[in-house]
Amino acid sequence: MMTTIPTSIADTFSEEVTRLRAEYQVKRQKSNVFPPAGRPILDMELVPGEEPAVGIWYEDGTQLGQYVRLFDLPETLSGNILRLERALPAVDGHVEIKGDVIRGLDECPNHPAPVEDDFEDVSDLVAKLPIVAVDSSRHFTKKGKYRSEIENLLKCQGGSCPRTILSPHLIHLLGASRDGELVFEKLATRGPTLARFSSLDTYKRWILHIVDALSCLHSLNIVHRDLRIDNCLFADNGSRLVVCDLESRWGQRAAPEIAFDGGLDSGWTTRSDIYDIGNCIKCMVYANAPITNQVEWPVPQPLQGIVEACMRKSPDDRPTLLELREMVEAIPGCRN
């Protein structure tokens, strides 16, 4: 028997979501680390290691720009700047801010080298797909970049196209366009969608949809690797969430066990996918994606407990998908 969320609890939750969104927007708009209050940015880099940092090249009229390196040290000047809790001090020249110490740099580092495309020839796989007469009002098309994406899409459809639906919450490959692009159902992206919803009932439904999608992928020995809010699509009325981008190649490096320099073998597992669910929940609630990884985004209970469980440091301490499903279903409200 399905229980429903009492009206008073639902209203309080939605009001708290609205408050948290408004607070973050004020903080975001006031921060001079990023536009609009801050200067235009030419480039950024994440510096991993025992002392992680963020490097930013600001536009200043020179070819490379002004470089500022901010170390991620919580409860210090540099850490609070990254968390949008403090303003970036007015500084001349290239500097690093490490904790509460501001130190000048002798020269500006070069911008990160552009990442070279490693796209694969997928023409033989595309040639086997049925041709779809594309209707821009109903279909979305994209160029296939990796063989793994097409292979994974077909696995999730029982090996066929047209499809056998193994999960309604995974994007379905409809075929190929006449010019060789992959064709999918057209769904809404997070931009026009998230801000229209703030109910616990909706978030519960979306989380269960992600769990369903990952359960299907993991049963086929596919690790998503790049689960984030930008790879979630939505029905216009919010009734359905669909996970897309099934390349299973390059991905998120948010989970602490993922190496920054390990290439395609950086340590992604089913448990790192579960870690990424936590970040997806935060983005749902704030109707946004964080401007830095250091931004602290608490969410209202009971979702905060689920976020914390998903994002435990040790992969073995995170819930399984079955355990996560039970945690979410224990919240009063809809079941699918």
Write up what this structure looks like:
It catalyses: L-threonyl-[protein] + ATP = O-phospho-L-threonyl-[protein] + ADP + H(+); L-seryl-[protein] + ATP = O-phospho-L-seryl-[protein] + ADP + H(+). InterPro entries: Kinase-like_dom_sf (IPR011009), Prot_kinase_dom (IPR000719), Ser_Thr_protein_kinase (IPR050167), Tyr_kinase_AS (IPR008266). The chain is α+β, with helices and mostly antiparallel strands and 336 residues long. The chain folds into three domains: 40-104, no CATH class; 123-185, no CATH class; 194-329, Orthogonal Bundle (Transferase(Phosphotransferase), domain 1), CATH 1.10.510.10. The protein has helices at 7-30, 77-82, 123-127, 147-155, 200-219, 270-286, 303-310, 321-329, and strands at 41-47, 53-58, 66-71, 95-98, 101-104, 139-142, 173-176, 182-185, 232-234, 241-243. The strands form three sheets. It has a five-stranded mixed β-sheet with strand order 1-2-3-4-5. A hairpin with a 6-residue loop joins strand 9 (232-234) and strand 10 (241-243). The longest helix is centred in the N-terminal third of the chain and has 24 residues, at 7-30. It is globular. The model has no long low-confidence stretch (mean pLDDT 93).
Briefly summarize what is shown.
Helix content is 29%, strand content 13%. It is built from 8 helices and 10 strands. The model has no long low-confidence stretch (mean pLDDT 93).
CATH level 4 superfamily of the largest domain: Transferase(Phosphotransferase) domain 1
- Runs in which pLDDT lies below 50 for 5 or more consecutive residues are none
**Strand segment count:** 10
The proportion of residues in beta strands is: 5-15%
Which CATH-level-2 architecture of the largest domain?
Orthogonal Bundle
Number of domains: 3
Could you give the order of the helices and strands?
HEEEHEEHEHEEHEEHHH
Principal-axis shape equals globular
Radius of gyration equals 22 Å
Mean pLDDT: 93
